[in-house]
Amino acid sequence: MWKNGTFILEGDGIILLSEGLADRKFFTKLVEHHALPKMDFPWPVEDHEEASEDTKKFHGKSSFVNMVKALAILVKGYPDLGKKIKCVAIGTDAGSDRARSFRCVRSQIENAGNFPIPDEVLEVKASANGFPAVVVMLIPIKGLGGLETLCVEAFIGKRDG
Amino acid sequence: MANENEAQIFASTHSLEFLNALKPIMSKHPDDFSLVRVYQENGWGRATILQGDEAITLIKSGLEIRM
Questions:
Q1: Is B31 in contact with B56 (CB distance < 8 Å)?
Q2: Per-residue confidence at A16, pLDDT binned at 50, 70, 90?
Q3: Chain B residues with CB-CB distance to A under 8 A?
Q4: Domain A2-155, what fold?
Q5: How many structural domains are present in chain B?
Q6: By the 8 A CB rule, do A5 and A30 touch?
Q7: Which of A105, A133, B18, B50 would be a feasible disulfide site paired with A87, CB 3.0-4.6 Å?
């Protein structure tokens, strides 16, 4: 949770990275609603939260590299804390091309370094170097679009679950 | 001051304001800085060292590093 300008990890070992505030809020409510294991959602930073201008740069689908890089440094510099992080989940819009969206996230994980790089969407890629596992989710889980697609289709009953 | 006196400065802090105040100079001269984190694990004192560029990335991320 954000408190006094910094983010304190307090979840059950899963960190979920999303590209926008709406996605972050959606995932936060989803976890609460389904009583899923407590997760951390460090970025993007809420407008009303006390955070520096720098943290607001951790926003958008091209900023996953910054997020993953910061987590890699945290794991390296804070090994006692790093051991508690089991998985980094990255959720992003499928957009108009699922393969391209996945490649975009994958290349950012690669550029950030250290973390394992999943070969497929929803593959929980374990690490051989002690780093947390990584999984990439595309929204919707099937098909094209984004969070809005999921919401609209669920609203009009076109999508099960 | 360190350069003028050819000296190193060791600063111990738990102040977020201090770390944030360092950001501009650390960003400009990352090679001149290191962040040494000292902590206890299983009763043993331990330390890890982050290079300046790593430290500045972490500070800018907003993740809590004062623990």
A1: no
A2: very high
A3: 16, 20, 23, 35, 37, 39, 41, 48-50, 54, 57-67
A4: Rossmann fold (3.40.50)
A5: 1
A6: no
A7: A133
